[in-house]
Amino acid sequence: NINEFRPVIRQLDDAAINRIAAGEVVERPASAVKELIENAIDAGATRVAIEIADGGKTLIRVTDDGCGIATADLPLALSRHATSKIDGSDLLNIHTFGFRGEALPSLGAVGRLTITSRVPGADAAQIQVAGGTMSAVKPAALRAGTVVELRDLFFATPARLKFMRTDRAETQAIADTVKRLAMAEPSVTFTLRDVSGGGEGRVTFRADRENGDLFNALHARLARVIGREFAENALQIDATREGIRLYGYAALPTYSRGAAVAQYLFVNGRPVRDKMLTGALRAAYFDFLSRDRHPAAALFIDCDPTLVDVNVHPAKSEVRFRDPGVARGLIVSALRHALAEAGHRASSTVAN
Ligand code: ADP
Ligand code: MG
User: Is DNA damage found in the keyword set (predicted)?
Assistant: First the structure.
């Protein structure tokens, strides 16, 4: 009798909802690191310190000197769809990394999360959430800013835990995430430290406070993150078309790679992985590179936030342009122009 097996519809509780959302927001330790660094930057931090252990599986700790979270707001910061960054009235006009209010509740649903924070002129406080269960707010000691500590990621979701790769692979993915965000924010100092197994392994990307000029600061940061050789072989790009600005550095064809490993693309300051944009990069170098070589570049596309939708996926690494043709055309023409000019300069030097 089919009526006996009729399913019952019930409302899921918050913990279950957060665990489901976590599946999209937090794919692996590196995604947690990305969310926490973005929160630090959104809070106006000038220094962000990231500590990890065992590929981020047992510990991720992000310390910032940003604006802090008011004690009364700590439970709210851990609640789903609670954000200080938008009021929900204009989803096309977003100027912060975050806006969905999903990262902290998601992390608290799948790991053990402790947030300690202090706003200027008040005492520090701390809140904990583990596997979706929130503790009461209690007093804490902290000079300024925020410390977010995530332990035992995915302990509450064993199925996801099984998909973790080796510590080495997860550490690599975290380092890549830190690099991309460090390129996006040259005026912020980042340190990444692996505190497991003796605590060796530390990288610092120091902000040069003197380096006020956009291109100087970016060039110095790229030299540190991608490498000196890239910086020495990179052409400065700066072009604007129909309200979209493209700037950054693209390497000479002689500095090409055997794989597409040194291609960093940013849209409105956000690191993105986008087929249309990498396709445009490839097309720009078409006449300058053999088929088995890949261009190296760090390119920033800035435009009015209403011309691009970043709300395509919870991780926000995909974007959708209102007019993809303009962005593509801009990349192809600006890079071709720079490469042709560099080639022309090189050949005229040889002729002299
Ligand atoms: P979102 O970033 O989308 O707003 P999150 O879940 O990542 O959502 O964070 C929720 C809220 O907690 C933020 O809107 C912000 O007000 C606060 N917050 C999170 N991290 C920090 C931080 N490092 N410093 C200050 N405030 C923070
Ligand atoms: Mg966030």
Answer: yes
